Amino acid sequence: MPAATATTTSTVAPLSRHAAKLAQAPLKPILKSSPALGKRKAPDHETLPTDGSMDGSQSPRKRQRVEFDMNLEIHEVGTRSVDEVKKEIADALDGHARGDDEEYDILKETLSGKQRFYDEDDDEDADLTLPEKRRQELKVYMVALASFVPHLGRSASGLVKSVLQCQWLGRDDQFAKVYTQFLAALVSAQGSYLEQVTLSLVDNFVESRPSAWAVPGFPPVTKERMQERMHLALQYLLQVFPAANAVLGSVITKKFPFHDESTRTHLAYVDNLLRLRQYATKLRTDIMDLIVNRLLQIDVQMQTDLDDLDDDMGAMVALALQNSQAAAALQGDDDDESDIESTASDEEEEDEFAKVKAVKDNIEKMDAIMDSLFAVNSPLFSDPESDQAHEAFVELINEFSHIILPTYKSRHTQFLIFHFAQKSEYMVDAFCGTCINIAFESQRPLVLRQAACAYLASFVARGAQVPGHVVRTIFTVLGHHLDQMRTVYEVTCRGPDVRRYSAFYSLTQALMYIFCFRWQDLVHSVPDDVDREDPSSYLDQDIEWEADVKDVLRRNIYSKLNPLKVCSPAIVEQFALLAHRFRFMYVYPLIEANKRLRLSQFVSTAYANGGALRESGLDLSDESWQQLDSFFPFDPYQLPTSKHWVEPDYLQWKSIPGLNPDDSDDSEDEEEVVNEEDVEEDTATDDEVGLDD
């Protein structure tokens, strides 16, 4: 794009009554030429309840202090006193230093929690409280061992490893506190163990079944209680040892589940990351970046796999999803393992079933994580005018700008910003302004500017809560930039060339896309016999359009750049039909003339003689590679569980009865809603109407 286009939005009227607010906020309205996206700011320090509980009813944003009883009066538990155990530990460490590991190995076994402190075959006439007392003796060992942390250097790493393997989350509350205090003392005295301690805690992020942390002889511990203990330990560690923030940030990235791990594992890990984000204020941005990055990887892989499936395998994926959902409904919280691969009879079939299962699993992971992110963010936007909502939206804008926007072929992740940006007119304004400023900053890479243009057009076209006056303003802004580009490009233009003028074609295609979906918002007035509630009544009427809407498209469509030859054929076809029937513009003669025009004659430089093309293996008679990509990122959202968040905000394509006299199905005034099992989603140009499924 020419540099001359970078400062034109200042001539446009404000988008909304919130523009004054935005002038002082990190997010700027679109009439500002170069808005800052807002520095990522962490909220005030957040902590957990002082009583050691984590009451979900309390706001995570409320300022609180964490208090652990650092002076637990534990002198004797069961049959052993602290002094007795201290002597045992001292003797074991001394023996280990001399090379005698007998007592040291026994101590390791004891501290790992694997040693039985009672005999199940004890005499029935014995003291019935003895087994309970012996089970509790591990507390004494932990209290006593805390006195030795200055001596637990590298030579005692085996002992420390045993302690870190101890299953402490399934024991009682007092043991959880004692264990947490020991970990804090250990890292304070022996910083080299910080990563190992952090890893031992984060390893539990993937656990969601009580059997994973249960300890024989202790009452069952719920998942919620286990998570509270784990996060209280982590929070206390961060409080007493601030350097743990950097190590923890590295560990949570390293331990994030691999893409082929189960939905349950991914969801449990993400849930714990979101809990961590409530109190690890220095890691708030890093945690969300990590979640969005990994979510995008699943998203892109899922879409790539779907694109590679034929119709039969796509149907198998749909069936597998249906079966999985039905089984999950019956089994509750248990893992659902599809048995679709059990019917495979040969190697080829096994390969097919493996692909189907992989796609199905990715869809379920994507769906579950998106549902969780929608649910976590939703309370923050209960009052869209609040500081809390503004802060949360700044974070979403930053995630979008730095991670989502540069990612090609993302299919669903972007709907987080799509949904929450429509919570208020101010947020609509801010998101549109962000896209416009990225699209027209000459320093940005061309591919990023084109993506921003596609996001803007798709948001304005598909956002059901985007007001009509915003649609008109965006159309005016984009039209102004389009005219400026045409003025610059026509000087050297010989004919349509997507490589040289892709920015111009992207912008033209965006305007046609917006017109196809939001044409009613671009109408200024209509004859008296037009019913504004009935789209079919607009057909073949003398409509008055908003100022310059018709002229800006006419000037650019009939320019030497000839965008109708380069833009997506499906979008061009739908635009041509609507423009004709609304007496807006008649472009069919140009489309017919373009059929006789060969794009290869205008291809510049190395490709001009066709030699390089032949060497690359491209078919010179197929011009699709010389046409613009039809990517519009807010195509219909099809994830079955989480789509309910998006549906109220989403403008589905609606055919107009009588629009095309050649169609026998014009009586349908609603687009067919895709069933949940139809998981293979086409792009915006693959359907019969050219703009939707």
Automatic annotation (TrEMBL):
Biological process, per Gene Ontology: transcription initiation at RNA polymerase I promoter
Q: Name one GO cellular component term.
A: nucleus
Q: Where is the composition biased (Acidic residues)?
A: 332-352, 662-693
Q: Where is the composition biased (Low complexity)?
A: 1-13
Residue segments, region Disordered: 1-62, 329-353, 656-693
Q: Which domain of life is it from?
A: Eukaryota
One example of the protein's molecular function in GO is: RNA polymerase I core binding
Q: Which PANTHER family match?
A: RNA POLYMERASE I-SPECIFIC TRANSCRIPTION INITIATION FACTOR RRN3-RELATED, TRANSCRIPTION INITIATION FACTOR IA RRN3
Record-stated family: Belongs to the RRN3 family.
Q: What is this protein called?
A: RNA polymerase I-specific transcription initiation factor RRN3
**Species for this entry:** Neoarthrinium moseri
